[in-house]
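Allow me, if you will, to draw on your knowledge of protein folds for a short while. I have a record of one protein: its chain in single-letter code and its fold written as C-alpha cells. Kindly check, if you would, that the fold set down in the C-alpha cells agrees with what the sequence suggests. Thank you for your consideration; the sequence and its C-alpha cells are set out here:
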Amino acid sequence: MEIYFAHTSTGLLLLSMLAIIAPVSAGTIHVYPGGDIKAIIEGAPAGSTIYVHAGTYPITTKIIINKDNITLIGDGASSTILQGNNKSDYIIQVVLANNVSISGFTFTQGSSGIYANLNNHGVDMNNGKIFNNIFENNYNGIQVAGHDETDLSKYEIFNNLIVSNGTGINLFNFDASTVSNNTIVSNTNYGIMIQNKNVSNIKNNIVVSNVTGILCNNNDSTPTLTYNNVWNNTTNYSFIPAGLTPGTGSISKDPLFATGRLGTYYLSTSSPCVDSGSTSAASLGLDKMTTRTDEQWDTGTVDMGYHYVSNRLEKKGFPIEFILKILKGNKNN
C-alpha cells in the first residue's frame, strides 16, 4: 500500500483545496452561484484573481474586462458554465486590457464566447491567454481583433475544446497570437479564420468536420501552420490568395475520437494524433493532462488537440509500510 495525492496540471482542484485549508491571499475574489458575476468581475481592481466556483451563470449582458492583469479562473470547464443570452451579446469582452488570463469555463450561447478587442489607435500591445476552456453553441467561439497595422497584440489560445459554433476562432487584423492544442469540431462556418495582416502561429490543433477547416483571407496574412490535423471539413484549407501550405508535421486523417469520463473528444490509442505534435508535452505543461480514455498522462511528444483534466493519481512520498517500519523502530528504541 502506498500514499497517493491527486494532481492536475491546471491547478484548479489544488486552488479549491487551498481555499478550504488556508486563508485566501490578498487580491483573490470568489464568485458563487447566485452572485452578481458581472458586477464582481467588472468591479475587481487591476491585478485581481477572480475564482468562479462551479455552477451555471446566466450572462444577460456582456461582462467587460478593461483592467490590466486580471486572472479569471473557473472551477473546471465541465462544471463552470457561462451561459449567454441566446447569442445576442458577447459573454466576455476584453477591452484594451493587458495580460488578461481566462481559464476553466464553458462558454455557450454568446455572439462570441470571448471577444478580445485589443487596439484603439495608440495602444499597440495587449497580451493575454485563453486556455483550458470549452466553447459550444456560440456564433464565434473566440474572436481576437486589432484595429490597425501597428497592433502587435499577442494572445495565447491554448488547449480549448471548440465545438458547434458558427466560427471556432476568428483572428483579425495584425494579431500575433499562438493557437495551439485546440480541438475544433463541427463549426458551421470556419474552424479557424485568419484575416488581415495576421502573423499567428497555428500548431498542434485538430480541426475536423467544419465547413472550412482553416481560412486565411488576405495577402497580408502570413501565419505559420505546422503539426495540425485538418480532416473531413467541406474544405480543409482555403488560402486567399493561394500560397500557404499546411506546413511541417501536418496531416489529414480521422483523429479516431473516443468517449471518456468528461466528454466525447478523447483520442483512441491508435489515433494518428497521438505523439504527433511539435514538441514535448512537458514543455507545454500538458504532461499531467490526458487525451486518453484511460486517463494516462501525455508523455513524450505531445498529442495533438485538446487535453482533458486527468483523474490519475500521482505517487508521492514513501510507501506506508516504510513509514510504519520507521515508527516501529523509534518505538523500540
In short: The first strand starts at residue 2 and ends at 6. The domain at 2-253 is CATH 2.160.20.10 (Pectate Lyase C-like). Confidence is low (pLDDT under 50) at residues 1-26.
